[in-house]
Design goal:
Blueprint: H1 2-37, H2 48-74, H3 86-101, H4 117-138, H5 145-168, H6 171-174, E1 178-180, H7 186-192, E2 201-203
Antiparallel strand pairs: 1-2
Length: 210
């Protein structure tokens, strides 16, 4: 029994010391992988399927890792629990906002993901609150406050930009800019004509990045 308790305590200390560090270390390579592989989504070769599957896995894993790290930071008692100093945590947190903003080469994995822009907007508010909480928790002894604020501004702009692009690329917004062959408005066309397969459409004034 004593051995089990000792192992549990050691595991808890190891988790407290390395959970945030480990997830931060994992988050950056995921962003790099997305940047490298996302432009190859349309590869039609035999390797295309496993590349698409890997992109799908990394895309969702990257969001999960960044969100989970934010949650750990919000409930962290560092350095009392053996974790990193609070000023370091406060400095790391804005980078997670940048990661949640995602790389420019893949804003969403599919068109259906664009319909989740409201969820991303709520997540943006939640993560910005968590970031400010970590920042104020590290005050007044935060020696990295200026660098933290600069990265925080970049993270907010990046994540808000992704949410805005998802909103503009949603079906409701695209319906105002898509015009089927024949000149009808997409919204009225979609209500009167059944959609079988891919419609022939012209795209105008659509600057959203998918």
């Amino acid at each position: 029994m004593a051995v089990a308790l000792s192992l549990t305590e050691k595991a808890q200390k190891l988790w407290n010391a390395w959970s945030i560090r480990g997830l931060m270390i994992v988050s950056l390579p995921l962003q790099v992988i997305l940047n490298l592989l996302a432009p190859k989504r349309k590869v039609q070769s035999g390797r295309g399927k496993w590349i698409i599957g890997l992109i799908w896995f990394v895309y969702f894993l990257a969001d999960w890792v960044a969100t989970s790290t934010m949650g750990l930071i919000l409930h962290s008692n560092s350095p009392k629990s053996g974790g990193p100093p609070m000023d370091i945590i406060a400095f790391w947190t804005p980078f997670l906002l940048v990661h949640l903003g995602g790389p420019d080469v893949i804003t969403s994995y599919s068109l259906q993901d664009n319909e989740l822009w409201q969820r991303h907007f709520l997540a943006l508010l939640s993560q910005v609150f968590s970031t400010f909480y970590a920042f104020f928790k590290s005050s007044p002894n935060n020696e990295l406050w200026l660098a933290t604020i600069l990265v925080l501004l970049a993270g907010i702009i990046k994540y808000f930009g992704r949410t805005l692009v998802l909103n503009r690329a949603s079906f409701d917004k695209l319906g105002k800019n898509w015009v089927p062959v024949g000149g009808e408005n997409w919204t009225s066309h979609s209500k009167t004509v059944p959609w079988h397969g891919e419609p022939h459409i012209n795209i105008r004034n659509c600057s959203s990045t998918l």
